[in-house]
Input
Amino acid sequence: MERLNWGILGTGQIAHEMGAALKAVNGEIYAVCGTSMEKAETFRQEFDAAKAYGSVQEMLADEQIDIVYIATPHNSHDLWMMETLKAGKHVFCEKSITVNSRQLEACVAIAQEKGLVICDGTTLLHMPLYQKLKQKIEDGAIGEIKMVQVNFGSCKEYNVHNRFFSKELAGGALLDIGVYAVSFARYFMKSCPDTVLTTANYFETGVDETSGILLKNPDGEMAVIALSMRAKQPKRGVIAGEKGFIEIDNYPRAQRAVITYTSDGHTEVVEAGRTEDALLYEVQDMQDYVRNHSGQENLDLVRDVMKTLTAVRGQWGLVYPFE
Output
């Protein structure tokens, strides 16, 4: 099978993690672009990549690149996605894929016009466990879903200069960790929520620090979400149906779930994939989408998640300076 050449835009921690995944799956990284040629060259040497670029435009002009992985801060995702798509290359972008639906839909329009794939790095959407659980639910294991509950809490060090708390860089809990929680909820709901109720507390820089989100879709399914950026919570999700419930701990990269059946209380353990291979699954899925001209189901879900995130922030009245 012909190897697909990836270019990496960004040289931070997550770019290093994805670099290791690309090496594991493909055996090589084709190119990297940093904020300086020095950073790009250091990354190139570390991963033995073929090429290093100090300019995004130079990298995008390289006709050998098939896919660009965008690992820059949230506020620049839509810009680099646009430029990458216009250059005729597929996009794999870190979450949150954009900061609002308007940006994402503009990118989707270009991708559809050019026949290109857009995908994002929300790991749970690529974990084998979720596909297995989805099938069990479709087979009626827990009956009709009534409620999804999901938490995510980080305890970031107090630092007003950190990107997590920067309004200029689209910081805050919602786009950094809330994207996982909303993706979890949407994955198990039949349709996109059309009712959103929410409230939030804010960090001194103006970004969201803690929030509660209540969602309901036209099918009557509900989701309750709790997020916090300065208070640790377990990463735990529950899908509750008429016949039982599914519990998933550490759900962003989960490999194990427990189903409890209401009738007699007996439990079933479901396992699939490996947590440590989460980014490998992302690479493999993206390459499958490109090779098979697929991935529309994933993109539709990502678009629904962004609609929900945009609606939540709209209720808060939280607008980033660059918007």
